[in-house]
Amino acid sequence: MASIGSLTGIATTKEMPTTRRGLRTREALVKAARVVFERDGFLNARLVDITAEATCSIGTFYTYFEGKEEVFAAVIEAARHDMLHPGMPHVPEDEGPAAVIEASNRAYLVAYKRNAKLMKLMQQVAMIDPRFEEVRARSARAFGERNARRIKELQDRGLADPTVDPELAARALSLMVSRLAFECFALEEGPRDLEEIVAVCTRLWVNGLNLSA
Amino acid sequence: MASIGSLTGIATTKEMPTTRRGLRTREALVKAARVVFERDGFLNARLVDITAEATCSIGTFYTYFEGKEEVFAAVIEAARHDMLHPGMPHVPEDEGPAAVIEASNRAYLVAYKRNAKLMKLMQQVAMIDPRFEEVRARSARAFGERNARRIKELQDRGLADPTVDPELAARALSLMVSRLAFECFALEEGPRDLEEIVAVCTRLWVNGLNLSA
Amino acid sequence: MASIGSLTGIATTKEMPTTRRGLRTREALVKAARVVFERDGFLNARLVDITAEATCSIGTFYTYFEGKEEVFAAVIEAARHDMLHPGMPHVPEDEGPAAVIEASNRAYLVAYKRNAKLMKLMQQVAMIDPRFEEVRARSARAFGERNARRIKELQDRGLADPTVDPELAARALSLMVSRLAFECFALEEGPRDLEEIVAVCTRLWVNGLNLSA
Amino acid sequence: MASIGSLTGIATTKEMPTTRRGLRTREALVKAARVVFERDGFLNARLVDITAEATCSIGTFYTYFEGKEEVFAAVIEAARHDMLHPGMPHVPEDEGPAAVIEASNRAYLVAYKRNAKLMKLMQQVAMIDPRFEEVRARSARAFGERNARRIKELQDRGLADPTVDPELAARALSLMVSRLAFECFALEEGPRDLEEIVAVCTRLWVNGLNLSA
DNA sequence: GATGAATGAGGTTTCATTCAT
DNA sequence: CATGAATGAAACCTCATTCAT
């Protein structure tokens, strides 16, 4: 499996531990880091707190990570699976495009809600460190491009408003969903009821693209 | 005139200077602070850099501000006029709701583009300091509420899809616009052509609310 | 007067203090640094010890110096006058070249003995930090070149062995004197009687160049 | 065979390995240490670098050495043969004292040039660690004493200037040669042509002691 | 009002050394 | 004999803030 560095693009010189013991320690540090980061924020989190949480010494920390940024990268990396493959297990393709959009939005929002604190953290760090902004942007781009392709396809099939630019519309609607998720779940401003948010998002997607036509 | 503190909600003990010289110095510091913040970001900006830019001493800084947060509040405050009254001079009320929305979006996006760096900065600080997050949230809420009232009105007049929740839809659509503005103008990701963005936003608003009906 | 940096070639960003108080503090730090360096050596000297000796805080140290290397440069710089102009007040030019050489050697050795600890320190640091090696080399080169010119002149006047290469001979004899000074005064190995050393050095110079001719 | 410790005077508790495998590992470490020391200097050399170069683990290092100083002692020890017996195979005793001095100087300088990097390293460490300064001093003393005996002999036979103190003159001239070697070969300042240096050194010895008489 | 020297808490980072496997 | 994860003391350095001039 590729090292964390290669996936998030955050440079790393430290290699993955080879022994079972090393792996266990590294894992404990990543877990502890997530706890401390979510509790104190990236800036307030101190290495001592992380190592205390992982019940190891500062020196051990530096055996596995170059510094705060690198553990953070590892934390993000560890949460990728959960966020990247947001379920979408059995998309009801035959129930029409609206159903697909709804399922997709729900999957995204469910995953977002589950990792709300981490997403907030990611936003914070992205605003501080350009390398993480790049990670965030890449992730968002991937999401946007997938949606752009979908919209294009619907337009080609005559099911969606052909006057909207697929790329930009996908971007705008994706941002709408992700930002609403951010405010509702990460900032805890506004309704926290998932279904309510799914409903609005889906309606605005469907209406926005004129899918009813 | 009310102190900055009262407007942004950031506590201040420092009074506004009474002499002309004092006012000039304070102004120079706010201007310098904006330059340095926009150039280095909030975290990297050091008070020495700001006073150097303003060609005055550190001591002088503390004559007017309590610290970094307070100058930042002053910088934001100084930019409020430009952002709060985003033109909207002659809204063509009689050309129909779509025209109003378009004008409103354009006004917002024009102002955003003009203050892009500051908006990015505001985002950064909001993620760091809860007091500024509150400022940001209040601002967004005001924008959202205004839009919610409009939507409700359109629904009442039978011009908009009555099935969408006006508050949440307003919030979602407002976030869509502001976030797209942020990415395009502040992060400089994606198209920087204003009209293109105005067009998409307006179309998605109009379609989304089924205003064509 | 030129800053330390420009003379020793050690880069400095810190400017010289402008106020009297600042000058006094900086001076105290340089003096304290010399004491601590001579007592503990460059490597063992800690910044805390220096600031303690100067009765000021660590922060104050960093107001004037970038780090250990920079104070050391300042210490060396402060001692330059004493070493560079090693007296040589009334060189008895008319008593013949041997007398000139003796006076020159004596002046050098007297200055060396007076600054023996610092010279030892300089040797240590030169072996550790290439920038100081460069300073040392430049100093030695200047000394050697002056002697080379003298030898050449004596050769031209038919007073010195014409078969020796003036540059290399000057270098060799200069090194002989400086190294003997180093071992006797800095390392305190061998005789510490100045006149004895002056006598041997002078005789080896005079014989070596065949000045008796 | 006596342990390294007894020769360099550096205390050691580690015994020499008894097995063939152990000897091979130890040898690899000494070789690797020389490479790393010559490349990075004593201070910058880290034990990890040495063990990496020797392709073994840190733990293994401690099987054979107490620490950095001890491997360094072993490195020096391994190079002793080359430096201590600097050839001088068939000194042409009957060609006169000048020829002996020339042969002796050449032998020394050839050996020095071959081990220039190590000699530089030795100088560095001697300035840092008094135990190695002692090793260096002992070595220099031996060289000086041998030369002092020679000079005395020449004086007794009426072949050398009787007015120079044999001990101090020998010391001075020996330092001249060794220091010139250091600067030319270790620091690479000045001519690197061996014969040129041999010529000057020999002439200054011969002239300096008035051997022509 | 303006100045800038002085402060020092508090974080980060390194690497020789140990020791259980 | 070989391994390499774990340790933690010890030093560095920053910069917001104070205050005497």
From TrEMBL, chains A, B, C, D:
<dbReference type="GO" id="GO:0003700">
    <property type="term" value="F:DNA-binding transcription factor activity"/>
</dbReference>
<dbReference type="InterPro" id="IPR036271">
    <property type="entry name" value="Tet_transcr_reg_TetR-rel_C_sf"/>
</dbReference>
<dbReference type="InterPro" id="IPR049397">
    <property type="entry name" value="EthR_C"/>
</dbReference>
<dbReference type="InterPro" id="IPR050109">
    <property type="entry name" value="HTH-type_TetR-like_transc_reg"/>
</dbReference>
<keyword id="KW-0805">Transcription regulation</keyword>
<feature type="domain" description="HTH tetR-type">
    <location>
        <begin position="23"/>
        <end position="83"/>
    </location>
</feature>
<keyword id="KW-0804">Transcription</keyword>
<dbReference type="Pfam" id="PF00440">
    <property type="entry name" value="TetR_N"/>
</dbReference>
<dbReference type="InterPro" id="IPR001647">
    <property type="entry name" value="HTH_TetR"/>
</dbReference>
<dbReference type="InterPro" id="IPR009057">
    <property type="entry name" value="Homeodomain-like_sf"/>
</dbReference>
<keyword id="KW-0238">DNA-binding</keyword>
<dbReference type="Pfam" id="PF21313">
    <property type="entry name" value="EthR_C"/>
</dbReference>
<protein>
    <submittedName>
        <fullName>Putative transcriptional regulator, TetR family protein</fullName>
    </submittedName>
</protein>
<feature type="DNA-binding region" description="H-T-H motif">
    <location>
        <begin position="46"/>
        <end position="65"/>
    </location>
</feature>
<dbReference type="GO" id="GO:0000976">
    <property type="term" value="F:transcription cis-regulatory region binding"/>
</dbReference>
